[in-house]
Amino acid sequence: MDNHTHRLCVNLSDKPGLLARFSNLIAENGGDISSAHHHVEGGRLYLRFVFTSKGNRDELRRVFLNAAQDTTADARIHLADPELPARVVVLCSREGHCLYDLLARHLAQDFRFTIPCVISNHETHRRVVESHGIPFYYVPSDDKVIAMREIRRLFKEHQGDWMVLARYMQVLDAETCNAFAGKIINIHHAFLPSFPGARPYHQAHARGVKLVGATCHFVTTDLDDGAIIEQDIIRVDHGDSPESMMQRGRDIEVSVLARGLRGVVEDRVFVAGKRTVVFR
Amino acid sequence: MDNHTHRLCVNLSDKPGLLARFSNLIAENGGDISSAHHHVEGGRLYLRFVFTSKGNRDELRRVFLNAAQDTTADARIHLADPELPARVVVLCSREGHCLYDLLARHLAQDFRFTIPCVISNHETHRRVVESHGIPFYYVPSDDKVIAMREIRRLFKEHQGDWMVLARYMQVLDAETCNAFAGKIINIHHAFLPSFPGARPYHQAHARGVKLVGATCHFVTTDLDDGAIIEQDIIRVDHGDSPESMMQRGRDIEVSVLARGLRGVVEDRVFVAGKRTVVFR
Amino acid sequence: MDNHTHRLCVNLSDKPGLLARFSNLIAENGGDISSAHHHVEGGRLYLRFVFTSKGNRDELRRVFLNAAQDTTADARIHLADPELPARVVVLCSREGHCLYDLLARHLAQDFRFTIPCVISNHETHRRVVESHGIPFYYVPSDDKVIAMREIRRLFKEHQGDWMVLARYMQVLDAETCNAFAGKIINIHHAFLPSFPGARPYHQAHARGVKLVGATCHFVTTDLDDGAIIEQDIIRVDHGDSPESMMQRGRDIEVSVLARGLRGVVEDRVFVAGKRTVVFR
Amino acid sequence: MDNHTHRLCVNLSDKPGLLARFSNLIAENGGDISSAHHHVEGGRLYLRFVFTSKGNRDELRRVFLNAAQDTTADARIHLADPELPARVVVLCSREGHCLYDLLARHLAQDFRFTIPCVISNHETHRRVVESHGIPFYYVPSDDKVIAMREIRRLFKEHQGDWMVLARYMQVLDAETCNAFAGKIINIHHAFLPSFPGARPYHQAHARGVKLVGATCHFVTTDLDDGAIIEQDIIRVDHGDSPESMMQRGRDIEVSVLARGLRGVVEDRVFVAGKRTVVFR
């Protein structure tokens, strides 16, 4: 049997001996660990291992699940194939910088993901998306209920693992947020919790801040209030108008979203209430 | 007569020809410009020149004032000697990192300033301050009215140009804020407008932000709401507790305060409502 | 006659009174200055003005040229229309991240430029480039002499103002470098002067640096030694392989190139020997 | 018996099962792990655990040593008390910014270290050092052989764990470098490998770089070529002279040295040839 690479994520109530327990199980099943991360917070233990083993993934999964269930009722175990590309459904509106960046990363295989489709409430980017050989769906947002239903349908039809709001300028309804809770990530063009909501660069300009930021976060029913995955900032000065802040800000929106997305598709991100654990 | 260096700051209602007007006046008075900054915003013009000239400073000042008064009733003109060290009165409490950094910069003559005295509501740092040959005043904050009066008295007695709250953990009263409006700067240990008020690192930890910041701003009667002079951030992650954020954050508190202070003592900072113009 | 915006760049031997001289000329010709930059270095004065005026651009140009020629034999004057998009010919090879970023910025009109054509020694990116409605030329690099000649021909035919090496993996020959001296900019994937030449991320990994960088610079006949326009860095750690550094590094290659290019097309960049003046 | 905190560092040839082995040993000895780091590189495994246990530190040390010796001849095991402050001997010359920063951190107990003495080839900082209650030794550098011998003697006499060159402007001789190999760290005021040796800010100015840096590294007999622990940069522009770069650069020298020192005293730094593993 061939050697395979496996990625194991564990999230359970902490007690002494758990790192030993899981690393033992890996060793006993012929696993050779190439990377291990460990974090304890709020009474919970977060573990992430990458290891190679000849073992069958389904059998291994059973082994780890049993071990976890012995320990605690609320253990969450995830054993994945790091070679399998995550399926990332991208939503966007008129502004294309985040979309185009994801298309370029997809082409460059910057990290393991594929884009099964792009959904937009504008036709603007159809031609470029299709030139990448990716289906493009125009879902107008005039009737919100219909639009949300169609987005959920497309996401399921294309077997999306993650939904990315790449400057999608519509607020998702509660049904969509809840249907894919923990699977939807957004890029907000401000350094949250400063300047949530609309026109953050105008807010930033009026307040006279010297740095503007971008925040990649999970989407919940509370607007711009989900757990933060990644943030970054860029320096501005008195010479910047809201428009030039917007322009400069695009660069960090793009890179913050990409780093956040890379984290989630590589199972580096664990949600812990309003906080995230992000193993580098 | 010897050549002297002069620094001219102008802040007046904008109209065509004003840059020509002031640079002409400098040229006509034998001035040679080594640096010039220009900014227009909200109908006002901000100019800063550094030039050398044999002219007498008081006469030059009259020339520029007359020119400005011809133009607009609300012109503000400031002609300074860049060699003259600004007198910076430092207030602090128990935490000494910002104070010690300022003492070290003063010793190194990092930029042109002197510290006529240090005022604190704790005796903690007396010995180190006095080892620098700088008077140290203990002003307990039990009786706020008395404390504030004493601070105002000491600031005047020591002919302070600027009052720096270097992690001074007391809110100044309105009388003090107003008496020295535009002359008091504070370092707040958060990236304002996020996390104003008390325990910002605890707030930042609870919200799960990935960057923590520091803000140097003018003090007004609205707490942590004055015009921002300088800001910076430092990256934190899930492994950081509020305590370790505090520890990491000290580095940027120190450098943000120092950069902000340098800006004001070198007349690089103009207040424009809630915003500042900061000529680099 | 309508008001027009003009951008004036001046680069000449410094002597007292020149800022007055040029700002006077602008005022005398009905100009209203919205932005002015001034820098003196190595005996030369660098000025950049943006102003509106009803004056005819060709007449204005004559006025400034005459003023400059009165002053010094080696004055350089440039009066441009800020509304006119610069023509940026992009060269690339297999890696597409910088190209795709420029295409996205072009579409978003991030700053005023147009891409008259893309030239590559690989067919890889033809489809995407053409989906943007931009001509794509495949110029194989097997015969270097022929390739270089063809590149020069295409640049002229498309009336290029700037040639951008957007990860073009061929060294330009001396004839091309000299033919368009001061008009060719490159993005090097290292923080020059560290790690010039080939495989900089491998060099960086071997040396164990904690930051990797990117440098946008003018191309001269000395490889990676032209004047630097813009640089930035990104943090790496022991967990990064040369491959993951490469991946992380793409983000700053993209943004450093874009900032550098924006600077040159907006006439913010003056070359002063091995150094550049970059007015923000 | 009371619970104690222990810090275990392991560095040995990698083979499958070692993480399990060591985490088992901790569990079997009643240990509860609060933090664990793991890195594999170049055939070697680097582990760092912090755990609490009632076990006696000497007995625990024997347990881990035996386990390691079973595995490989060249294993290195280090079990430390995280509460015990590291003894950091500081060397400096005329420039005091790094020294003063360390004194302030020491006072603030920023991280667990103590300064048993300061050694300098100038008397400049005696008064301030002594005001902190720390012995100050003046060791003139006129006779290098004598100076180096005295430095070695003082370091041993004061039972130094680490020797920090806090802008000490003398090159240590080979005997000193070798006597305390892996225990001496330096702050170099450039982003190595750019600008090693003397006057790096002047080199940086002449080359026209847009960022200047600082590097904290281990001292070896090859000047500025030891393994890098930490680096950072600060933005400069055409307006900066070598002197103002120096001024701005001090801020990052200070913070880079502090972060590097914190890493080594907390046993987060492992040397792997020319590279370091730095567990955050």
Biggest β-sheet strands, sense, barrel of chain A: 8 strands, mixed
In CATH, what is the class of the largest domain in chain A? Alpha Beta
- Number of H- or I-type helical stretches of chain A: 8
The tally of domains of chain A stands at: 2
Short description:
The structure is a homotetramer. Chain A has helices spanning about 20-30, 55-70, 95-110, 125-130, 145-155, 175-180, 200-205, 240-265, and strands at about 5-15, 30-40, 45-55, 75-80, 85-90, 115, 120, 135-140, 160-165, 185-190, 210-220, 230-235, 270, 275-280.
Characterise the protein shown here.
The structure is a homotetramer of 280-residue chains. By secondary structure, chain A is of the alpha/beta class. The first copy, chain A, folds into two domains: 4-80, Alpha-Beta Plaits (2-Layer Sandwich); 86-278, Rossmann fold (3-Layer(aba) Sandwich), CATH 3.40.50. Chain A has eight helices and 14 strands. Chain A has helices spanning 18-28, 57-71, 97-108, 126-131, 144-157, 174-179, 200-207, 242-265; strands at 4-13, 32-41, 44-53, 76-80, 86-92, 113-114, 118-120, 136-138, 162-165, 184-188, 211-218, 228-235, 269-272, 275-278. In chain A, helix 3 links the parallel strand 5 (86-92) and strand 6 (113-114). The longest helix of chain A has 24 residues, at 242-265. Chain A is globular, with a radius of gyration of 20 Å. The model of chain A has no long low-confidence stretch (mean pLDDT 95). Chains in contact: A-B, A-C, A-D, B-C, B-D, C-D. The A-B interface holds A 39, 41, 191-195, 205-211, 213, 227-233, 237-239, 272-278, 280 and B 39, 41, 191-195, 205-211, 213, 227-233, 237-239, 272-278, 280.
